[in-house]
Amino acid sequence: MKKSTLLIFLFSMSMTQALRAADTLWWSETMPHAEHGSSQHSHGGPVEIRRGIYHKNLWLRSGDGPVDAKYLDGAVSGRILLTDANGETKELSGGNVHGSYGVNFAMPDEGFYNLHLIRESVVDGARQLTIAKSEPLKHSCREGHDHVKPLMAPKRSSQVPMEIVRQRTADENFHSLLGYGDTASFLVLYQGEPLAGAEVTLHTARGWRNTVRTDAQGIASFMMIRDYYPPWHEFERRHRQDYVVHASHTTDDAGTTDSGSYTKTRYLATLNGSYYPSTRDYRSYAYGLLLGVFALTFTGVAVYFYRRRRQHRFHEVRFDEKN
Amino acid sequence: MNTNPSEATAPAYNRSRQAREAETLLDRIQDDFPDNPQAMRYFYDLFRRVYCQGEPVKHEGTLVGTTCIHAPEELIYAFGATPVRLCNGSYHYDQIGADFMPAKSCPLVKATLGSLHAKAAVPDTKSLELIVNPTTCDQKTKASAMIEAMGYRVHDLELPPAKESEEARLYWQRSVRRLALRLRELTGRKLTRNNLRQAMARTARAQTAFRTLHQLRKSAPALFLGKDAFLVTNAYFFDDLDRWTAAVERLNAELQLRQMEGFQAAQKRAPRILFTGSPPIFPNLKLPLLIEEAGGVVVADETCSANRMLYDMTAVDEWLLNDMVDGLADRYLKPCTCPIFTRNDDRQRRLLQLAADFHVDGVVYQAFAGCQVYEMEYRSIADVLAAQGIPMLYVETDYSPDDMGQLSTRIEAFLESIKTRKRNAR
Amino acid sequence: MKKIRDAINGVDLRRFRFLLQLFFFVLLVYGGYFAVNLGQSLPTFACGFNDAGRGGICYLLPLQHQLAMSWGTLFGWAGLMVLQGFLFFALWFFILNKGWCGYICPLGTIQDWITSLRTRLGVRYSRYTEGQFRRLSLIKYLLLALMILIPLGIGGALLPHDMGTPFCDICPGRMIIPMFTGDFSQLTIDFSTKTTMVMTALGMLVTGLFLAGAFFKKRFFCFFCPMSALHYLLSKPALLKLKKDGAKCTRCGDCYRVCDMEIREIADEVKEPRIMQDDCIMCLKCVAHCPEQGALKATFAGIPIFESTEQGFIKRMTKGHHDEHKPQ
To answer: What is the rounded (10 degree) CA torsion for A62, A64, A67, A68?
Structure first.
């Protein structure tokens, strides 16, 4: 009873918020309403498993960063393209997923799936092209880990004018998690070519953000900060937090679309991702080695004294092994 | 070291009773059989020199007597000492020793006591600096105090009366460690890895030579006679270890040559006998000699003067003293088929396996009158052999030559019955 | 044929084993660098935490992982997958029986190396008393039971999920084997939750105990190994077998003396030809140290492949007698 009233309340809240053309759109893996039950956690984020097949839910959100971005309830215009792990692209349609606008698709194969939303609008003579990208991963350890290496490389889409590609680290695999203190690098592509000097902004879950410009190779790098400070007993090492990266680029081309004519075009690409506490935050070599060395020394010394002091029933006579 | 009898009353050794006893036996061994192996000459000569002429055997370092096969000789060698086995087979010493023991006692123990008591005994007992006396049977255990009373230094090597349990094994390992301690005091030397390793290498070489000889006796028709085999293993009691090994290796080489030539030491149909029970010790080779004079051939034995003494070998995992000494202790306890232990199933299995491996036709079981443990095991051994259809002759005897005639009749009858069985079987 | 047989039976087992163990150690610990992959059902401690170098994965890791699935999944469609993994594990195991322990297990090899270090230093080994041995011998079954029950409990939401691979948490292989490829990250205490903190702390204590224990006691850890217990439950139909001909045995105890696992039955049992005990690691040292022709033998699918012989025994012992500088 209580649940449903809350639901209706939340719905009515979001109803009032209309989507504006200039809003930043991005995909989020985080459920809009926790009441819908939790999904299973797998390598590559939360999934739903239906008859052994992994299904991914992604919700579209509008706003700059995870702190203030809203979930949407109404339909959003634009094309949604899904490139599966094998590189096949098909068009998806979004809809109501657990109460908010999002997509739901099956991930039968191992590897990275690329989801793009391409939305075009013209406001005040300026065309805005929003490209929201998400790159969910499907991996189940039951499939083994031999096939991982060739599947690691990021895909580039030929159907989007601009996109952000997360660069892989050298030793990255399907189990790798981005942690505090790690550096994440993003390649910005415009019409398939690296874009130098583009402004790239990263928003973290708690509202911290940083803006850098891409270098000559079109790459922008950020060091993830630690922004998770729970009491010790509430600490979760698998605490997943969303980050969003935006990159924008403006060109002076002119033209006409259904919604009007324009004199310049602003491209806005987003990419979402997750980051976690770093192992450095909760793992201690010092204590580990201390305990290990303690056990080693203690056992060694104990055996030594046992042998020296205790006259074992049948071993009172000792031999000197030195010749 | 000995108190009596005095030097003056002793006759010249080579005319003494024990010398004549030895001489008669050696003559029989050598002359009653044709085609003795050339390499046996070393052993014939050795016994003549030692037992008939009374020549001392040269030894290195301290001389340590042992009264049973349980004394680990590698340990004695490792301390630079030389072991000599004191178990005696002489009727002459048996009679001297009779003063110490009850009338119906084991002649072996009596003879040993007699030889220790006598002046100028053979083998030489004068220079013994320690006697290691394992507490095996009651008679040997009790002999310990008597030997001490004669003025010898005795180390009682405590042997457990059962060998199956882990406790017994550890107890025995402790005994052996104690012996090592005693030997260190005696010799003033230190036990080192290399010394023990070298000592073990020497006995292992001797055991290997014995095993080769043992395997050669498997060949049918027989290649080598039991009376010679007993002489060879008897020589191990007192001979220099390396010289003995070399002589056995020469003998093996000759026998291998003879094997290729198709040599037969006995008739093709000669009953093959497995000898078990109380040990034949020179000059008491009465029973094996009677068997072979009657046309049988002793192809294998299960006695502590031959097989049981030399067959089993020591295994070592880590060549550290602690492992080597325990390994030695195990070798002197675990495989031993001596009847003094609580159970005798190992002895039964060993006999059956020897009977099968050596194509044995019959078993001769010698029990010294007064050796209770062998007498007590007679029944169980007889039952096991009967179940396998192996005939057995049980002979209760001692060192006296009086029963020779009666024994030879019984043996002839036994061998004849085996021959008949074999004929009928065919 | 007889010549080949004699050559095999006269082999210097210590050397042969050392080389074979080294080969398998490289294969399982560094195989990953050479694209070796033997799957994730190996019946031996090829540690899966050794990400970079592993040439295959110890079955206990995926087993615990799988058992920790929710009961609905486990007793549904995923059950088949668990069975399939178990089948592969059993097939691997049937080939070599416990030979996996004595010849292949990297953790066993490490213990043998530590033993070798000890003998070089001239330090004597420790042995358990018989009573201790009987009691300690049961621990591995307890660990096996816990290793299965705890993940099942997690799957049923009865236990916290951060205990997912309880045995791996305390297995010294997790800390030690990855170190061989330069990965020291397992030597840490995980403070993220109370459970992980306790388990990783236990793991480090066990690791210290393992290093010291293996120094004093030959194959220290194998007494407690739940893999060994699991092996024994499956060992009857295995192809490689250890057999004893009791009639030929003199009970000299040479085999028991050299046995790293202190198995007395090897020397004392004379009736049952199938002599392998639950603690056995099938190193075949007993066969090599048996002086009785054919008393002990290893057979593969019924064919004798390695047999005790008098000649072989003498050859090996003579080598020991004359190796002046090496205590082992």
So the answer is: -50
